[in-house]
């Protein structure tokens, strides 16, 4: 089965950390530039006290302190990053930001260079970071604790959506400042709905309605798929999406145990697999592999009539097919009520061993504050993590974005655990394992649950 991304954090951790965080001697070099980046080197690091004083009181005759910031943004998002950096430097002329684009590895959402730099004690001063990895990295002592700094500057839970604030914590300590978020819904092609006699203003609410619509919208030529009405696991249709929609829970806070074999999650995976059985997993994969990206995205071309996506899909559809008539609806569930979603998003961190913590704090505080959030999220059509800022961005009156906004108060977030990335990876593979008859949904999820709890116990024992 094909998805947008995959994480093999276990492999990365073994290859990159391997105990380095807890006893490896410091590497050579100042660690403030990426190899081959062509960026100017940082100035000599200032002491924390000096950096704090500089940040608060710019002095015209003092040499600006340079901090290094790593990110993975290009295109429109890269432009948004650059604008925030420019605005920050204008407001804080005593701090210069060496903004370095660091490409992501093929199978990882976070740069392997960042992990290696932390392990060798030569990291950048600040980095753009996937929030759900906070638990995995904080559990390895790879991030700087920001709790006291946040308290001192009156940054509190009330500034954010609860899920974004909670996701930035590990063991009641703050390790990241939330920046943006998203939500997941089903996009559907209104013209295709009309063409098969479906009401484009009354999309599916129950799983039965979704199945019926998907069958009507699917076009087969013999055994060849010409159009798929829906593919449950495609794009953002991961097991987290359906497990929560069916009413399941992936982690029990009271027992501290992974519960990926929750009966509701087993039910969700069983339903997902019906599509693999009906159309053939290789047949569906072959169809997906034949589709394109950007202007040739299968939803844009009409090759897939309904697709699970995030609010970020909107900017793509606007750019490549502004006349596309589409709508969105929440992930259906068996009962057709109590709809939910899950949200991810990014944050700003100060890696462990950063040389200029105080200046880096001023930077990430600005980037994730009202000014930075507005500039960045406006540039990428992203959702701010501070509710009132979404009002400023006008999302509540937008006919599509407002529907995403409506779900944010009930959004789930992935468990913040030291095995969070491994858990993501294992759950991502589950639908394909079931489709290829490696085991029943119950058996596959039982094994995943047992393996994850054993790994979690090891992590906890090591601390």
UniProtKB/TrEMBL annotation:
Transmembrane segments: none
Keyword match Transport: no
Region (Disordered): 33-55
Signal peptide: 1-30
Keywords carried by this UniProt record: Cell membrane, Lipoprotein, Membrane, Palmitate, Signal
Superkingdom in the source lineage: Bacteria
A Pfam family recorded for this sequence: SBP_bac_1
PANTHER family membership: ARABINOSE-BINDING PROTEIN-RELATED, POLYGALACTURONAN_RHAMNOGALACTURONAN-BINDING PROTEIN YTCQ
Protein name: ABC transporter substrate-binding protein
Source organism per UniProt: Paenibacillus thalictri
């Amino acid at each position: 089965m094909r998805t947008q991304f995959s994480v093999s954090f276990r492999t990365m951790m073994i290859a990159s950390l391997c105990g380095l965080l807890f006893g490896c001697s410091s590497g050579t070099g100042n660690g403030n530039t990426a190899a081959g980046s062509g960026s100017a080197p940082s100035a000599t690091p200032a002491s924390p006290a000096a950096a704090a004083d500089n940040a608060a009181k710019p002095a015209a005759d003092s040499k600006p302190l340079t901090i290094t910031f790593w990110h993975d943004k290009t295109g429109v998002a890269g432009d948004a990053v650059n604008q925030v950096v420019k605005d920050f430097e204008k407001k804080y002329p005593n701090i210069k930001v060496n903004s370095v684009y660091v490409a992501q590895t093929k199978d990882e959402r976070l740069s392997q260079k960042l992990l290696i730099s932390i392990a060798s004690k030569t990291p950048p001063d600040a980095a753009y970071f996937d929030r759900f990895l906070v638990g995995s990295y904080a559990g390895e002592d790879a991030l700087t604790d920001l709790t006291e700094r946040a308290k001192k500057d009156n940054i509190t839970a009330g500034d954010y959506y609860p899920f974004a604030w909670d996701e930035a914590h590990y063991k009641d300590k703050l390790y990241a400042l939330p920046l943006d978020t998203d939500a997941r819904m089903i996009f559907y092609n209104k013209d295709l709905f009309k063409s098969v006699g479906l009401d484009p203003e009354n999309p599916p609410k129950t799983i039965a309605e979704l199945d019926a619509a998907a069958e009507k919208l699917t076009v087969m030529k013999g055994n060849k798929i010409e159009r798929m009405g829906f593919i449950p696991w495609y794009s953002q249709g991961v097991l987290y999406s359906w497990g929560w929609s069916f009413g399941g829970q992936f982690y029990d806070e009271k027992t501290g145990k992974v519960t990926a074999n929750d009966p509701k999650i087993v039910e969700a995976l069983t339903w997902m697999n019906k599509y693999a059985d009906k159309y053939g997993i290789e047949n569906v994969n072959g169809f997906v592999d034949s589709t394109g990206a950007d202007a040739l995205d299968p939803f844009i071309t009409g090759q897939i009539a309904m697709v699970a996506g995030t609010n970020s899909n909107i900017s793509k559809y606007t750019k490549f097919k502004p006349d596309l008539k589409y709508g969105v609806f929440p992930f259906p569930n068996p009962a057709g009520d109590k709809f939910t979603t899950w949200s991810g998003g990014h944050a700003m961190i100060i890696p462990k061993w950063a040389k200029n913590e105080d200046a880096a704090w001023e930077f990430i505080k600005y980037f994730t504050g009202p000014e930075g959030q507005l500039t960045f999220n406006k540039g990428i059509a992203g959702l701010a993590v501070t509710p009132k800022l979404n009002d400023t961005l006008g999302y509540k009156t937008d006919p599509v974005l407002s529907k995403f906004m409506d779900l944010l108060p009930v959004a789930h977030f992935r468990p913040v655990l030291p095995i969070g990335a491994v858990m993501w990876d294992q759950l991502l593979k589950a639908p394909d394992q079931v489709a290829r008859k490696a085991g029943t949904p119950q058996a596959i999820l039982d094994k995943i649950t047992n393996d994850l709890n054993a790994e979690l116990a090891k992590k906890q024992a090591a601390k």
